[in-house]
Every structure is written in C-alpha cells, then in structure tokens.
Amino acid sequence: MQFVVTAWDFTDPEALGRRMAMRDAHLERAKAAYAEGTIISAAAMLNEEGNMMGSSLIVNFDSREELDKWLEGEPYITGKVWDKLKIYPVKLAPLAG
After folding, report:
1. Which pairs with CB-CB distance under 8 Å and at least 24 residues apart come from 91-94?
2. Which residues of the chain have pLDDT under 70?
C-alpha cells in the first residue's frame, strides 16, 4: 500500500540547524529504504527563499501501522526536525510500460 507523507519542519530559529545536523543520518536511512523499495520518491520542500522547510515522501508499506513504526526511527522525527505530518493512502498511476 502506498502513502504520501508530507512533513513540515519546526519553525523555531534552531530548526534549520537541527535539520542540517540530522541530514546525513536521514539520507543514509532514506537511501537504504529506497534500495529496499520502501521509499518510492522523496523531496525536500522549499520556501520562497529556497530554504528547506519540510519533506514529501511517497512510500510503500503493507499497512499504516508498519509506516508508523518505520517513522518512529526516522532521524528527522527523533531529532525534532519534522513538526507536523500529514499521511494519506494513495494509489499511484501505472505510468511505466
């Protein structure tokens, strides 16, 4: 089952610093999940100034519970980078041949 995860960063003055401090751990985990097929796509969301302000992921898990369990170990959650998350089940369009 696929889900879209939209995560907005905290907006306090130290938020970008926390994001940058956790970025390597986040990307390492994301690359492993991409290789496993758990992450289908991922992107940093940018504000009008071009600074990172959140993330958007399309992921594949057997259930919402499995996704929630996976998110518990996400460095951007444990490191207090992501503040608010919206998660929706989605059905991806079959665009590839």
Report:
1. 91/2, 92/2, 92/40, 92/58
2. 95-97
Beta pairing partners, 6: 56, 86
pTM, entire model: 0.89
As a whole number of angstroms, the distance between CA 68 and CA 74 comes to: 10
Unique residue bearing structure tokens 């690359």: 31
pLDDT digits (tens, 9 = 90+) for 40-58: 999 999 999 998 999 999 9
